[in-house]
Design a protein that fits this description.
Layout (H helix, E strand, L loop, with lengths): L2 H4 L2 E2 L5 E5 L2 E6 L2 E6 L5 E6 L2 E6 L6 H20 L2 E8 L4 E5 L2 E5 L6 E4 L5 E4 L5 E6 L2 H12 L11 E4 L10 H6 L1
Antiparallel strand pairs: 1-6, 2-3, 3-4, 5-6, 7-12, 7-13, 8-9, 9-10, 11-12
Length: 183
């Protein structure tokens, strides 16, 4: 049994949770999310303002799925009550971002601007200097996936640090050719 899976999830006042036929649906002030849970292995019980995730069998490999399922449901509840957010910083001369509808236009030093189509559930905002991208969504899993794909368009390089990086991410710098000769 998973220690994390045994913990009860408290439901805020403005959030409703329902479980039927292996699908957990959570509705709150920021939106609605539905995800499929392994109904053969995991059972979800919603009572009053609590959610219990119960493993149907006690095999060793089910413990990890038990805890994972509990955390997924907890993230769904947190997402619809307060959105998740990822901040990306663009570093480099001439590198910038712009939002047009549900499309993110990025100038990243290539011969053409890069167009990135955003999913409907993700909101994107670009700060005034066009070097900070703020992504927000109720779905934590999709938000992490989209932010990783945007970062991979131009990952930060170790010599000058140019590229797209997460806010707070540390880029280990390397010494260039001229720095190595002086040492």
């Amino acid at each position: 049994m998973s220690r994390i899976g045994k913990k009860k999830i408290m439901i805020p006042d403005n959030v409703t949770v329902s479980f039927s036929h292996g699908v957990v649906s959570v509705k709150g002030p920021k939106g609605k999310i539905e995800k499929t849970i392994l109904k053969d292995l995991i059972d979800v019980q919603v009572k009053d303002k609590e959610v219990n995730v119960i493993a149907k069998t006690s095999k060793d490999d089910i413990g990890a799925l038990h805890g994972l399922s509990r955390n997924i449901i907890n993230n769904m509840i947190m997402g619809v009550s307060q959105e998740f957010q990822k901040i990306l910083n663009i570093i480099g001369i001439g590198y910038k971002a712009e939002v047009k509808g549900k499309e993110l236009l990025l100038s990243l030093g290539y011969s053409h601007p890069v167009k990135f189509k955003l999913p409907d559930i993700i909101n994107c905002k670009v700060e005034d200097k066009q070097t900070t991208i703020i992504l927000s969504s109720v779905d934590k899993e999709l938000l992490g996936e989209v932010s990783a794909k945007i970062r991979m368009l131009r990952p930060p390089e170790p010599y000058k640090g140019k590229g797209i990086k997460y806010s707070g991410e540390y880029i280990k710098r390397k010494v260039g050719k001229s720095g190595a000769a002086a040492a």
